[in-house]
């Protein structure tokens, strides 16, 4: 009995270790199917877009700081006939950066959708060729529903869901990195607290990702019986009224609703916990360092406001990054299942015409 219990514990620990790991092989298969040209285009367009977005915010902060400083200096001099602040250079730079950001957003969206379309076409074509050339023993041992599910649900996930999740994941990740970079640039003392904060975030997201993925699956699994029961009740409403089973079906509907609400409540609470916990730490450290730099190093008010604004948004970016990472893990399962069928050995047709 002791040996059996230890074996069960080892199996459980190995399962939990596998759940905590990212499916890097499926991710590599998806990215390799995108091609040599599309992948650098996707990465470069994302980097340029977020660089321009940070430049827009920085330009606006400098514009505000210079205008306030000029106005304050004129008030101290009591100079009513002096020339006003020249907004023309800043407005031109701001307009150019905004137009460039719009163009880069369009290029990024096209690159993401083009990547998803190319990957889907390549995987679907390879899978179709493998299934057509598969031996008869493959069809005798593999259920037909499993094969159809690879061509329908999994291909739909790769076609529609993975590109959108990939775009959201890259956007939230780069926004989080750019926010931390701006805070570190405005207040270099933030770098001292960034290392322990990053280590803490790594271990928190490692365990949160597994819980978030399981809660998302629980939410989906409890939503399906609710929708099925509702549709069946609407379709058989005449029969239910004839047998006077309204109370029974109403009670069943309430039970399914409660189960789905409990799963949704725990998922929402977990997401809010991550956002508030990490965000409060980042905002506290950024606020303390910004106020200290403003008092002792004469930091401009515009840059302080820029740093605090990005600090307030880090929690939201980090929350979406972890949630999109959990969604990506679930959706990459479709690539993993299709990749498993692609390893099927073809029938030997030598000697046949």
Describe the 3D structure.
The protein is mainly α and 353 residues long. The protein has a single domain (25-76, 85-342), classed as ABC transporter type 1, transmembrane domain (ABC transporter transmembrane region fold). It has ten helices and no strands. It has helices at residues 2-20, 24-34, 38-77, 88-132, 136-141, 144-186, 190-235, 237-242, 246-296, 301-342. Helix 3 (38-77) packs antiparallel against helix 10 (301-342), helix 4 (88-132) runs antiparallel to helix 6 (144-186) and helix 4 packs parallel to helix 10 (301-342). The longest helix has 51 residues, at 246-296. Mean pLDDT is 79; it is low at 1-18.
Task: Name its key features.
353 residues; mainly alpha; ABC transporter transmembrane region fold; 88% helix; extended; disordered N terminus; ABCC8 protein; ABC_transporter_C-like
**Within the CATH hierarchy, at the fold level, what is the topology?**
ABC transporter transmembrane region fold
What is the highest CATH level, the class? Mainly Alpha
Structural class: mainly alpha
The gross shape turns out to be extended
Radius of gyration: 28 Å
Work out the number of β strands: 0
CATH second-level architecture: Up-down Bundle
Q: How many structurally independent domains? A: 1
């Amino acid at each position: 009995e002791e040996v059996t219990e230890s074996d069960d514990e080892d199996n459980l620990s190995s399962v939990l270790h596998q759940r905590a790991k990212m499916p890097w092989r499926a991710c590599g298969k998806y990215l390799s199917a995108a091609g040599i040209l599309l992948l650098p285009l996707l990465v470069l367009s994302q980097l340029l877009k977020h660089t321009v977005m940070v430049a827009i915010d920085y330009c606006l902060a400098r514009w505000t700081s210079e205008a306030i400083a000029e106005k304050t200096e004129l008030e101290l001099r009591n100079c009513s006939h002096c020339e006003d602040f020249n907004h023309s250079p800043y407005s031109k730079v701001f307009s150019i950066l905004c137009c460039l950001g719009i163009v880069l957003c369009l290029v990024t969206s096209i690159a993401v959708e083009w990547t998803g379309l190319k990957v889907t076409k390549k995987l679907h074509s390879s899978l179709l060729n493998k299934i057509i050339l598969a031996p008869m023993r493959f069809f005798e041992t593999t259920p037909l529903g499993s094969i159809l599910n690879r061509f329908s649900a999994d291909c739909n996930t790769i076609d529609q869901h993975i590109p959108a999740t990939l775009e959201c994941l890259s956007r939230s990740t780069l926004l989080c990195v750019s926010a931390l970079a701006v805070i570190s640039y405005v207040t270099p003392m933030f770098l001292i607290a960034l290392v322990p904060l990053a280590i803490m975030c790594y271990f928190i997201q490692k365990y949160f990702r597994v819980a978030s993925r399981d809660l998302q699956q629980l939410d989906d699994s409890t939503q399906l019986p609710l929708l099925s029961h509702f549709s069946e009740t609407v379709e058989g409403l005449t029969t239910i009224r004839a047998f006077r089973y309204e109370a029974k079906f109403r009670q069943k509907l309430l039970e399914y609703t409660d189960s789905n609400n409990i799963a949704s409540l725990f998922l929402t609470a977990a997401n809010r916990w991550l956002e508030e916990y990490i965000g409060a730490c980042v905002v506290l450290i950024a606020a303390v360092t910004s106020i200290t730099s403003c008092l002792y190093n004469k930091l401009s008010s515009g840059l302080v406001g820029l740093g605090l604004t990005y600090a307030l948004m880090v929690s939201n970016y980090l929350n979406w990054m972890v949630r999109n990472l959990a969604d990506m893990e679930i959706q990459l399962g479709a690539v993993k299942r299709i990749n498993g069928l692609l390893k099927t050995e073809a029938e030997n047709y030598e000697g046949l015409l």
